Design the sequence.
């Protein structure tokens, strides 16, 4: 079976697992990264764990932007061809968005996430990822707006609460708000796979707030 005849989301799932593994190995830990929720068939927490030390600006893995965009364009090309025949295929749109997200081409990723949300506005994973892309573009307020909207559909969404807490903490200096989000995350999702990371961040925030 050729790649063009395979499920495009399955193709991207395989590619994504390799890319993310290499990225995390290259930097040791994914410092400062928010969790990427899409695609739905991938366990996002296992794919992207977060060691979220405070940072004044969003942090992303190292890589040459031109080369990364060239690679992303190459990976997205067959999916974009399929989209010409299926422009309302949300799986294809999400897969393309994810390719550009991981290549740090966030404006392009936002465009494709936005197309998905026009068709399925209650897609919490996609809306969370679009908010995360806005954060990496330097727009904390728009990121929070998207996270808030996502949580209006799924109030206990763990990845959304995780990311909103990080943006509150790092982007808005709202330590109290971050604690509320992370404590709610753990209360509603006691088996969350990034639980140890959340507990570390809670402890760090509390230690910083001591007089």
Sequence:
């Amino acid at each position: 079976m050729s790649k063009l005849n395979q499920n495009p989301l399955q193709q991207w799932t395989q590619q994504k697992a390799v890319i993310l593994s290499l990225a995390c190995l290259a930097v040791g830990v994914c410092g400062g990264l928010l969790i990427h929720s899409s695609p739905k068939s991938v366990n996002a927490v296992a794919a992207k764990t977060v060691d979220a030390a405070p940072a004044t600006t969003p942090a992303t893995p190292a890589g040459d932007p031109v080369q990364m965009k060239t690679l992303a364009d190459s990976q997205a090309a067959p999916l974009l061809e399929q989209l010409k025949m299926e422009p309302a295929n949300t799986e294809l749109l999400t897969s393309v968005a994810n390719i550009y997200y991981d290549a740090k081409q966030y404006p392009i990723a936002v465009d494709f996430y936005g197309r998905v949300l026009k068709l399925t506005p209650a897609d919490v994973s996609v809306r969370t990822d679009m908010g995360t892309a806005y954060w990496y573009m330097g727009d904390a307020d728009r990121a929070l707006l998207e996270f808030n909207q996502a949580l209006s559909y799924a109030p206990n969404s763990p990845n959304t609460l995780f990311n909103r807490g990080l943006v509150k903490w790092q982007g808005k200096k709202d330590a109290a708000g971050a604690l509320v989000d992370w404590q709610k995350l753990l209360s509603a999702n006691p088996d969350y796979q990034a639980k140890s990371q959340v507990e570390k961040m809670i402890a760090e925030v509390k230690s910083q707030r001591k007089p």
Observations:
- The chain has ten helices and no strands.
- Residues 1-31, 39-61 have pLDDT under 50 and may be disordered.
- The CA atoms of residues 29 and 51 lie 6 Å apart.
- The first helix runs from residue 8 to 27.
